[in-house]
Amino acid sequence: MKKSDRPLPCAAEDYIPLREKISYGIGDFFGGGQATMISLILLVFMTDGLGIGAGIAGTIITLAKFWDAVSDPFMGNLSDNFRSKLGRRKPFIFLGGLLIVPAMLFLFAPWTWGAVEGSGQYYGKVVVVAIAYLVYCTVSTVSQVPYCSLSSDISSDYRQRNAANTFKLVTDMAAAGLCYLIPSLIWQAFKESNITLTQFWLIISLGFGSVFALTLILCALTVKERTPLPESKQRFSFKSYSEPLKIKSFRLHLGMYITSFLTMDLISALAIYYCDNILSGLKLFGMNMSSLFVIGPMMVLAACVVPLCYYFMKIKSKQFAFRVGMPLYIAGAILLAVYQPSWPTWLVPLFAVILGLGFGGTQMMPWLIFPDTVDVAELKLGKRDTGSFSGLMTFSRKICTALAILIVGWVLSGAHYISGVNQVQPKSALIAIRVLLGASVTVLISLGFLFSMLYKITDKKLVRVRYYLDVQRAGNNDTLTDGEQAEREALLNELAGASKVKKERKSTPAQGNDGADGE
Question: Would you list the DSSP string of 112-151?
């Protein structure tokens, strides 16, 4: 192994103290928790709580994403170019923390008027709910695009980033688990008339909103941004929407991310409908069967496999850790989809355990992979516009949630789902819930597996990428030997896609490909 091919000792300016890694990780309680909670309860809150038709409710959530199509990349560009004593990302994270509670109070407000579908009041309520979700999406964008950029900007050393982002992912999964379980129990209490819709609103908005706010503010006040700032600012243009897609590894990474989180959001959006209707009337341990017996085992097992996924990441690669549990993911979803009420009820949590065993790696790896693709992009593009990349990531995340809710909403509407609490659903709606659960997981996870097989960034290649980044940042590309020039070009062609450099050097004989080998 060449000297420049070995991992370098961590420079003092790249080192992240443990307390800061923890603070950074805690900051993802909002990112990991709110997306889960929104995909879990927002659609059922609109349909069964507010009495809005399933198709219309799904459309409300989807239409808000047209605004995200503009606001997320714009927010990425704004935070890329912002300069302050706190940094370029943290002021927005702080502001988002201050605004999240009022945004949630507006979103989950218990509008009781306009119950008669087709009336003027009914459509007035639909408009108010649509505006509330638009406001919520904007507040989420203000904090989440800059926060996601921190996963790359917190350090230039990929090992330090991996360690910090591991804390982030542990928080993400813990937040997802809590925001699955607790809102499910609160919704169950509302469904059983133990609390009113107003009490549900206050618990969700003030309880969860306060935790989301505090963790974002703590992160904003304690975390440092260590990667070098670009010498020049980049003007916002619509070109920034597509520029990250020029990078081959980012396109594949985005495919892994979208398939993974769209699957999770579909399961989240279906969970309460599945438990309230497919498992209706069943008991386990003397308790009514609820989403607790599906979501609880799934999330606990997903958290338990995190150390195993981290081990596979170390000995193989991040993409291997991403896909290793996928067969179990698919098997668990299919088993839940075909479960019959006449079967033993203990099979439900068992199938959820199988689902959770495959769930962990797909949720853990995409954000560990993200900073690596930004390194490759900087090497190709000559600039580090992390915000543009994270803007596209957060936009994709919101699109996943919207698509999941839209698909579930319109499929249920087409299957004649009856809105309202404790309604007896037709057989067509029950079949639709089962088919959606089994088929969506099978198709999407299979696609994610394919993307992971095509993704080629490894730790060995990252060492070489970092070496050439250091040379490039110092303005010393002309000092590279012919062999290093050829290796740099080969890395870019493999990881970033064909470049103009390749065409210009087409007549030059190849001079080696040291260190650019596969996994």
Answer: -S--STTSHHHHHHHHHHHHHHHHHHHHHHHHHHHHHHHH
Q: 285: buried, middle or exposed (CB in 10 Å: 19+, 13-18, 0-12)?
A: exposed
- How far is C-alpha 269 from the geometric centre of its chain's CA atoms? 15
What are the pLDDT digits (tens) for 124-143? Answer: 999 999 999 999 989 999 99
More confident residue, 70 or 431: 431
Q: Residue written as tokens 């007896």? A: 424
Determine if residue 366 is left, alpha or beta; phi over 0 gives left, psi from -120 to 50 gives alpha, anything else beta: alpha
pLDDT of 494 strictly over 90: yes
Q: Which amino acid is at 415?
A: A
Do residues 209 and 108 make contact, with C-beta atoms less than 8 angstroms apart?
A: no
Beta bridge partners of 513: none
Quick check: 192 pLDDT over 60? yes
DSSP annotation string for 17-82: -HHHHHHHHHTHHHHHHHHHHIIIIIHHIIIIIS---HHHHHHHHHHHHHHHHHHHHHHHHHHHH-
CA distance 259 to 304: 22
Confidence band, pLDDT 50/70/90 cuts, at residue 17: very high
Contacts of 111 (CB under 8 A, 6+ apart): 50, 125, 128, 129
Give the pLDDT of residue 461.
93
Tokens of 131: 């505006």
CA 387 to chain centre: 16
362: Cβ contacts below 8 Å, ≥ 6 apart: 260, 263, 264, 322, 323, 325, 326, 329, 445, 448
Q: Is residue 165 within 8 Å of residue 367, measured between CB atoms?
A: yes
Mean model confidence pLDDT for the chain? 84
- Picking from 368, 31, 386, the residue whose alpha carbon sits closest to that of residue 166 is 368
Which of 35, 49, 66, 57 has the alpha carbon at shortest distance from 411?
A: 57
CA terminus-to-terminus distance, the chain: 15
Structure tokens at 281: 């009337």
pLDDT value at position 498? 66
Summarize pLDDT for 332-355 with one digit per residue, the tens: 999 999 999 899 999 999 999 999
Stretch 491-517: mean pLDDT, rounded? 55
- In whole angstroms, what is the distance from residue 29 CA to residue 41 CA? 17
Instruction: Say how many residues make up the chain.
Output: 519
The pair of structure tokens assigned to 205 is 């908005």
Local confidence band at 218 (pLDDT 50, 70, 90 cut-offs): very high
**Phi, psi of 86, deg, nearest 5:** -80, -15
Amino acid identity at 226: R
